[in-house]
Amino acid sequence: MNLPRVFVVLLGLIAGAAALSVYLGRAKVGESLTTRAQFEQLRPGDRIVYVCRQCDAKRTVTLTSVAEALEYCREGAMLSCPGCKDEMRVVLKQAPGATGSAVEVQYVNKKGHECLTIAKALPET
């Protein structure tokens, strides 16, 4: 086997291992919460995970009340990344013709880029 071929094979293995690691790390969360209706269905004791898209830091929160769950989808509410400490603001986007709970929830940084994802945590095993 020649040296360039060995290099390419090793590079492929490293890239594959990195991709698998990221995939398995993100697979530990459940359904993404993207609408107000999904937040309204959360109950005390449910756990949510928020993941920063910039640094991949995660924070798990156990909800203590329905009001706390709704705070994560309140227009203008602020969240802080557990890793890079960037501040994210809740922005609500309503599609034309959508009403009430069909409002989409996004988390944007100071530049207006969507940078946070909130998902329901999978049950602990």
How are the strands of the largest sheet arranged? Answer: 1-7-2-3
Total strand count, please? 7
The overall pLDDT average reads 83
Overall form: elongated
Helical residues, percent: 25-40%
The helix-and-strand class reads alpha+beta
Name the quaternary structure. Answer: single chain
Rg, Å, rounded: 18 Å
What is the CA–CA distance across the termini? 46 Å
SSE run: HEHEEHEEEE
Beta-strand proportion: 25-35%
Low-confidence stretches: none
- How is the biggest beta sheet arranged? 4 strands, antiparallel
Number of helical regions: 3
Q: Can you describe what's shown?
A:
With 125 residues, this protein is of the alpha+beta class. Helix content is 28%, strand content 29%. A hairpin with a 6-residue loop joins strand 4 and strand 5. The N and C termini lie far apart (46 Å). The mean pLDDT is 83.
For the structure shown, list the relevant keywords:
7 strands, three-stranded antiparallel sheet, 3 helices
In short:
The chain has helices at residues 3-26, 36-40, 66-71, and strands at 29-32, 47-52, 58-62, 78-80, 87-93, 104-108, 116-121.
Task: Explain the layout of strands and helices.
Layout: H1 3-26, E1 29-32, H2 36-40, E2 47-52, E3 58-62, H3 66-71, E4 78-80, E5 87-93, E6 104-108, E7 116-121
Antiparallel strand pairs: 1-7, 2-3, 2-7, 4-5, 5-6
